[in-house]
Amino acid sequence: MTDDLGHGIGGRMRENGSVTESQRAPAEFGKRLIKCLVVDNYDSFTYNLVQFLGELGAELSVVRNDQATVDALLDTAPDRVVVSPGPCTPDDAGVSLEAMRRFPEAGIPTLGVCLGHQSLAQAFGGKVVRHVPVHGKTSPITHDGRGVYLGLPQDLTVGRYHSLVVAEDELPDCFEVAARGGDVIMGIRHRELPVEGVQFHPESVLTEHGMAMLAAFLAA
After folding, report:
1. DSSP-assigned beta bridge partners for residue 162
2. Domains defined along the chain, listed by start
3. Active-site residue, selected from the candidate residues 36, 203, 208, 209
4. Is 135 noted as a catalytic residue in this protein?
5. Active site residue 59
6. If you ran DSSP here, which 8-state letter would residue 152 be given?
7. pLDDT 10s digit of each residue in the chain, 220 long?
8. Quick one: where's region Disordered (predicted)?
9. Shortest CA distance to 35 belongs to which of 53, 9, 22?
10. Residue 186 contacts residue 199 (beta carbons within 8 Å)
């Protein structure tokens, strides 16, 4: 299986004009800021995600995938968890596979981005397979208008940086396909647990409405 490489391409920040002033207000959980844990899979895009989430007002902690156990991370009691992109397979991504299962099972809303998305599928019995490398390219996607896509237009453009995909013919029944780009699953969502994954990069300069997607995740 080929590792997902090339994430340094296009890893630039932009000011996404699709977010309202209310979405830019601090993300709150009750009377305090939302605590958001980011599992870093040693990827250049991780801090793009961190910057976006910080601009949305989240209180952030970033832990690399081999520097803590999931039990220890659960003890920190995050309100939200994001598992980042990375230049490897789910099997080589430290605690990512376990994190994508156990945080949602604990009732903590979780988002997997690229490698995190692939880890989500595999953690629940899905299969990740090789695909023609797509690095620094854009694609239009269609979506179900729920979750991170709430209120967003169809056929929006997203940035892609991957050589692995989730195999649709082996997608577990516990998932619904939330977004597609051609013949590739671009988003999945668990039918019962608070977790979804996106194959594309909402934090990329190439993605439309990326900030709004992350705002919707924090607000869920």
Report:
1. 134
2. 21-219 (3.40.50.880)
3. 203
4. no
5. no
6. P
7. 434 544 433 333 344 444 543 444 456 655 578 999 999 999 989 999 999 999 999 999 999 999 999 999 999 999 999 999 999 999 999 999 999 999 999 999 999 999 999 999 999 999 999 999 998 999 999 999 999 999 999 999 999 999 999 999 999 999 999 999 999 999 999 999 999 999 999 999 999 999 999 999 999 8
8. 1-24
9. 53
10. yes
Tell me whether residue 201 is one of the annotated catalytic residues. yes
Q: Which residue has the tokens 């000011």?
A: 15
- pLDDT for position 6: 40
Structure tokens at 125: 């019995």
What DSSP string describes 15-58?
--TT--HHHHSPPEETTEEPEEEEEE-S-TTHHHHHHHHHHTT-
The pTM (predicted TM-score) of the whole model is: 0.89
Q: How far apart are CA 15 and CA 200, in angstroms?
A: 18
- What is residue 20's predicted lDDT score, i.e. its pLDDT? 45
Q: Catalytic pick from 7, 36, 88, 114?
A: 114
The number of CA neighbours under 13 Å toward the Cβ of 50 is 15
Q: Tell me which residue has tokens 């250049």.
A: 44
CB neighbour burial string for 38-66, b if at least 16 within 10 angstroms, e if fewer = bbbbbbbbbbbbbebbebbbbbbebbebe
Which one from 117, 131, 201, 209 is the annotated catalytic residue? 201
